[in-house]
Each structure stands twice: as structure tokens, then as C-alpha cells.
Design goal:
two-stranded antiparallel sheet
């Protein structure tokens, strides 16, 4: 059987393009002449023109540095940088500070990553729930599989009793700033 060299060449070029399109960063260590390739996900895409996604909104807020550190430790940055849409309930730093002493430090340990992921996923709903859609007593099924209950009395919105202090529209959803950390049961 004769091999069609054009087909072979096209497959080789296609494979080369496929592997070169991934977002990767190479670094070399001169001490041992090894090259390491670090794969980056959606969060590694450089885009200075589009609106900020939910992670970038949190990063831009000085009041959310603890949340950003937790999302990074839990390895959820790429997931939350994707298209979504997401409704994120984002506790401020003071909300983390209000937890019992040592709680945040304990959750940030590698051996507690699954528990940290569960707590953070409890703050995320897949879909966008804008303020005008919120009804008192409304229940949302969060990413971790547990439910939160929204409250609305006049202009005041709550989630499991935590007050919504404000909201920011993001490219891939909406971020509600809240005054408490939501803990799944």
C-alpha cells in the first residue's frame, strides 16, 4: 500500500499546530540543563481588553485578598476564569477574620485542600442571578451540591443570613460581596 506523503505531511503539520496552540511557559534551570513546561489554563490567557472575569474582579479588590489566596490554594482559579456563567458570593477579608482563630490557616494547608474546595464551591452558583431576579426564600444549588437560601427584604439581599454589601458584574457572571463566610453543613 502506497503512503500518501501529502496526507502524512498534513497530519504532521496539524499535530504540530495542535500542540503549539496550548498555553505553556518554558523555563530552564542552568544548574542541571533541564527545561520545565508549565501548563496554564484559562487564567493564563492574557487579555487586557475584555471585561474582568469573577477571579479578576476579586483580585482587583483589596477587600478580597484572603478569598483570592484561598481560591489559589484550592486550585480553582482556572475553573472560575472560564466562561461560566457564575454567581459568586465573595466574602470580604473581615468575614474570614471573624472565623475562629486558626480556621483560615488550617484550611490553607495542603492536606485540607478538599475541605477548602468544598467551602469555596459553596460560594458559587452556575448561572447568573441578577438582583432583579432574587426573591425572598429563593434556593440555589451551589457547585458543591449543597443549597443556599437567598433573602430579600426591600433592597437588602442576604444569602444564608450573610448580608450582600454590593455587586459587581463580571465578564463571566456576577460577584456579590458578602459580610460572612458561608459554611456548608
Amino acid at each position: 500500500m502506497k503512503t500518501n506523503w501529502i496526507t502524512t505531511a498534513l497530519v504532521a503539520v496539524g499535530a504540530g499546530l495542535l500542540f503549539s496552540c496550548g498555553s505553556a511557559e518554558k523555563s530552564s534551570d542552568s544548574s542541571d540543563n533541564q527545561t520545565t513546561t508549565v501548563q496554564k489554563g484559562q487564567s493564563g490567557v492574557a487579555d487586557e481588553e475584555s471585561a474582568k472575569n469573577v477571579v479578576q474582579v476579586a483580585i482587583a479588590s483589596a477587600d478580597h485578598s484572603t478569598l483570592v489566596a484561598a481560591v489559589t490554594q484550592a486550585e480553582l482559579v482556572d475553573a472560575l476564569s472560564n466562561a461560566g456563567p457564575f454567581t459568586v458570593f465573595a466574602p470580604i477579608n473581615a468575614a474570614f477574620d471573624a472565623l475562629p482563630a486558626g480556621t483560615v490557616d488550617n484550611l490553607m494547608k495542603n492536606e485540607n485542600k478538599e475541605q477548602l474546595q468544598d467551602i469555596l464551591q459553596y460560594h458559587v452558583y452556575v448561572g447568573v442571578i441578577r438582583e432583579n431576579l432574587i426573591r425572598d426564600g429563593m434556593t440555589l444549588n451551589q457547585v458543591n451540591g449543597a443549597n443556599v437560601t437567598l433573602g430579600k427584604q426591600g433592597d437588602q439581599i442576604t444569602v444564608n443570613g450573610a448580608k450582600v454589601l454590593g455587586s459587581v458584574t463580571a465578564a463571566n457572571g456576577i460577584v456579590y460581596v458578602i459580610d460572612q463566610v458561608l459554611l456548608p453543613k
